[in-house]
Fold these 2 entries.
Entry 1:
Amino acid sequence: MIIGIDLGGTNLRIGAVTSDGQLQASAVTGSQAIAGARDPAGELCGIIADYVEKNRIQDIEAISIGVPSSVEADKETVICTTNIRNRAGEPVFCHMNLAEKIREHFHVPAFVNNDVKNILLHDIAANHLEDQKIVAGIYIGTGVGASIMIDGRLLEGKDGAELDLGHMPYFGGDASCSCGKKGCCECYASGWRLRKIQEEFYPDTAIGELFTRHREEAPMKEFIRACAHVYAVVATIFNPDTIVVGGGVPEMADFPREVFEREVNACTGRDVMTYGFDYVYSQKHAGKGVIGAALFARMQMESA
Amino acid sequence: MAAEKKQILTVKNIRNVNMENILQSMIQNRNVTRSVLAKENQISLMTVKHIVDSLLEAGIIKEKESVSGDVGRNPKTLEISERYGNVVCINLTSREEIRFLIYDIYRNLITERSVARREGSTYEKELRVAASEIRKELLRTGGDLVGMAVSVPGAYDESQDLVNYDLIPELKGLHVRSLFENMFEIKNIRVLHDVYAAARAEYDCLTPKSESQFYFYCGYGVGGFFIHQDTAVTGSQRMAGEVGKMLVPADKDPSGYTILENVVSVSAVKRRMKDQGMDIPFAELPGRYTAGDAQAVELLEPALDTISLVLYNLLWIYNPSCMVVDSCSREYAELIAEHAGRFMEERREESIPVRTEIRCAGEDEYHRMWGCFRTARDAWIEDLASAL
């Protein structure tokens, strides 16, 4: 049994994952408990210990956590959780070796990975894409996250900061981003941008109904086009077998898949489009980050 | 389960891997002893003995007494048989000529020549002329031809044996590999995208090897290639890295976008030079830009800004240890590297800084063709090991 944890900006999900990838005893708690704690890593260990005791989990092989941050190449150290901040507004985990803290507390192997990478691992397993050469997953939620599996291995940058697509400069864009830069992709293709569109153009429509009611209108079409560009860049330079489309935005009701795919195809390089690629849509499943974390731990242990 | 793929190891393929490693060691270190082979490859002396016996029996390697002044029996050294002579690398990336380089298996350059294309003749005929010149050179140098690598200016579809490249139309319909197979009667012929070959060569030139490298080429075509932990990211159909086909904004295009190649390639810049009545060779343009010539600045600045932004975007995607810039014009490559370096430096203080080393590619074709050479030689070694 591997304990998988998915630490998000709002919730922390935890579960026990069997060797065949089945999630058991799933639980959820607010991330604020960690963000507000004097010792966030200690609080996290406390949450895990309570969960293990309450659910009488035995024979723990490893503990694996997905975090909304880049992770250093050691797969132990969180670089910076910009979306989880304490009361003083500081990122809760910044260059912290979280795996070491967990390992010292529980005396089992511990792993830390970027949450989106874990979700892609889940989606690959759930859609039986393990044997494909290149699988690219792009997840548009509040921000933009991405991960790429090449020949069964996740792409890793020199310092863990690869595929930060949300903060690539968007051509011709100069909107201010929450990161302090200007013109980041997230300013044009993200849940954050969708919220702005709603406030500006459709204040009377609930955000969950935006595609249902307004998908044929210019602001929404422009938004879809911006999202498509992000996917097209990745398709053009990686020539994937499959693109996994996921995150809160594509999982919204009546997300216009056909229009979106048409836009991606039109913006993708001609050579890649000679062969094309498949689209797979990530299914709504609250536990996928937890299962993905466990899959990552298993992958690390098998390759050790 | 998305577990990391592992090669299924059988006794046969463990032996093949050990044999390949031994042959590679013998190439790196001529006249090597069995004990050195065992130590270098971290295998037992007994395993080395079995493999070496097979290689000796097949005549692939030979044994010699080492010349040593030490007292006592001299150890016997091993080397690859002299009959294994050459690797030919052919460059089909120019419209004007067909170049070829002949190396020995130790990467020493034996011959470097080019055959000018004649007007009115078909590309296939010109290839046959070049092939006949190569044959003459091979006869002169002696030894068996062990492999060939053909560098082509576009993505190569191995299943169809076709090159996807518009600028030399006749090349597009030509089955390059089977043509050379018939002409040279060998199977070890590798057709490689020139960008891949150059990227590989740049990566292999570095000591110690970089963790990852993005190679960017901006000549008449525009392309790129990413090598990650010694593995080239080729894509599912070997089309990865086609950065020249990425969309960038274009005011004049009705869609508002065009492909990068149409803005920054040498041909695109030359087209704009012609439109503006600038009647100088392209090679002079970077110099004029550096000197502050207003027209040159107006012509080149948009291209350099666009390239810098694209490279900066790619930095966010790949997060590579280094970026290498290359072009058919050395001056253009230097300008691009300098401009992009400055662009990245200006963003050094941003809240999420991402940086990399950016440099120009090596200059000469001898080094550029290393990637081709290595691919053909490695394939030969692999074939030798699996045949025994």
Entry 2:
Amino acid sequence: MITVIKQGLHDTVQDLGRYGYQRFGVVAGGAMDPFSHRVTNMLVGNEEAVATLELTLVGPHLLFEEDALITIGGGDLTPMVADEPVPMWKPVLIRKGSELRFGAARAGCRAYLAVAGGFDIPEVLGSRSTYVKAGLGGLDGRALRKEDILRFNSSSRLAEVMKGKLVSGLPLRAADWQITPKLLPNLSGHYEILVMRGMQYELFDEESRHHFWNESFTVSSQSDRMGYRINGPTLRLRESIEMVSEAVTYGSIQVPADGNPIILAADRQTTGGYPKVGQISSVDFAKLAQAKAGDQLSFKEVTIEESQRLFIKQEMDLRVLRAAIRNRLR
Amino acid sequence: MYIHKTQSGCVGNMEYTFSPLGDQAVMIAVEAAISNLSQRKVNAIVARLDEVAPSWMVEYIPAYTTVTVIYELGEFIGKHPPFEQVCLRIQEILIGVQDVADTEQRIVSIPVLYGGSYGPDLDFVAEYNGLTPCEVIEIHTSGDYTVHMIGFAPGFPFIGGMSEKISAPRKETPRLKIPARSVGIAGMQTGVYPIETPGGWQLMGRTPLELFLPNEHPPSLLAPGDKIRFYEITIEEYKDLRGDDE
């Protein structure tokens, strides 16, 4: 069990999303950075869809009321126990009575905290993801607050073996291995993001299309789990059109009449009526999720074939990683 | 079509195009513009997808003239590019689908408390159209409405069929908070906000009915194809139906 001593900026319970209800207007939601969510789960012996905590920019202070095997991944929000930094991307045993304190973001924007067994929270419409606007899922449909209590489900056999290996008198004990850095995104503050042409790409004028691929855009402070507003050259249609609302998805880059693009993210609405200039490759959701206000984005064109090839390659890499972790945890 | 890469299919008398929406979804477009025919085609495709429910389909999102199928990309690892495989599978599934007229339509009656603090823009809509508030309510309650799609917010219906006699432009500055269950008008559309959201619609009144039902299946009171009638209720009836002090 964890008690929240101090809340962060926006700490929510997330899993891989609420699918099957978008036809009723229910947003899919889920972890903004599904890669980090999945890998942190793997590292504590969980199934990948188990709920984690998504922590944004400034993380919380959490008191562990029992021993827990955890992994922190994603953005670096400077996690500490006592005066010791907590290493990321590896299993760590936190002892009962220790306080895990996150600070400000050193790199990236969103950290994921996975606990062996996952959080004991009821599913709403098939998911534990928090959707704050409709008060759905997570802990009472809202972000964490001071004095909230999060209980754990029982952890897997693998996690128990790992815990046994890490036991010592210290408040914190990390595994002596970690996953290869080459699998992890480079959190530089300037992200090159792979983008496919959007459904209405051809309707933009030539100059706008040129700018889109060749200029960089700055992430606005008006960015959240629903979408990122980005500032750069304005994008114009060749002629205005009256669009009929149609489905949108994570990574759809919409351009409203003012010409400033909005990149739709995890908590996007299900349908939209603005022309879409581009569509971010699934493999690069992780980069987008780690971009924060002021960071630079540039877009590199890929075909759907290439985008799907890269996705499948990443799935293969994750399969290999999963097997390697199982061997390590054993 | 304006799509950079499409595949098309034609089955019986139904033609459609496929376009990728990102690398994990495909949009099936049946018509370029909204019509009764486009609605029937969308409904027919949805009915067939429900019937077949292929294992690789995560879900689908119907809209006015499109149905978007979200698929499990991991299930298409093979020789052909996954997008092409998905299009072929969907084409097979849609063989023989006819845009037949809907056989059964639900009629949902929605009680509305018009005006006052529940519908602060009723007077504006009346004035804008040179009508009295009573005439606006009369026209709004005598309309024959159809739900075209659910989207924008959980349970939010896009409703067609409103009389142009009571149309009104969106507010120039949207409200930051529109109370849940508000009934509004924007242009030629009327609709009901299921949850509290920002929005620019002119607010006519409020219904005591919940449109978003997170603990029920399906979680939405309304579905595409439903017929809707609005009827006026008094504040006493509203309070009776709510059963709380709102």
